[in-house]
Amino acid sequence: MSKKHIAILTVVLAILIDQISKIYIKTHFQLGEEVVVFNDWFRIHFTENNGMAWGFEFGGKAGKLFLTLFRVVAVTGIVYWLWQSIKRKAHTAVIIAIALILAGAVGNIIDSVFYGVIFDSSYHNVATLFSDNPYGELFHGKVVDMLYFPIYEGESFTFFNAIFNGADSWITIGVALLFIFNKQAFPKEEKETKQVS
Predict the structure, then answer these.
(1) How does 172-188 read in b/e, with b if 16+ C-beta sit within 10 Å?
(2) Residues with catalytic annotation?
(3) Over the stretch 124-139, which tens digit does the pLDDT of each residue have?
(4) Which residue in 16, 31, 78, 165 has its CB near the most CB atoms, within 10 A?
(5) In what order do the strands lie in the sheet with 42-49?
(6) CB-based contacts of 130: which residues, under 8 Å, 6+ apart?
(7) Cα 193 to the chain's mean position, in Å?
(8) pLDDT of 16-68, one tens digit each?
(9) Which residues pair with 49 in a beta bridge?
């Protein structure tokens, strides 16, 4: 399989897994609902945020719109990076890493752009897909998170209290792969030296 096809397959599969899991959670869980999956340190906990890491927000609706548009621009840059890496026949792990980062970015953009106009509210309610009464506007959707790994919970401290989604996972895995294969991802250009006679 060519590197181009590997990249396309990685992006498509990663986006599908991310979106299928989010749509399932939205249409089967109420906001805040939780299911313990394994020994209390892995849970499915449905929450939503406006798209920034750890649920941070800034600038209200204008800030949300800016963040979404910034991500769209960033995705353009990632697509270019992926294309250039394919052209220079970069290591397959590097291609997969960039493809995962692209898929993660696109996955969260889909939430931000479209979820506000295709779902109704999940507050005290299981959301309906393609609702007649959507909860938001185009470009103002909330990102769905559900993966929760509270490895240690004390009275006033929880180790790893972030709740994230498939798209976030793809970005993290992609960055980790780039770190591991950094020499292949960021090769130093060999400079030719000319001898002066």
Answers:
(1) ebbeebbeebeebbeee
(2) 145, 168
(3) 999 999 999 999 999 9
(4) 165
(5) 34-38, 42-49, 143-148, 163-164
(6) 118
(7) 44
(8) 999 999 999 999 999 999 999 988 889 999 999 886 655 556 656 777 788 88
(9) 143
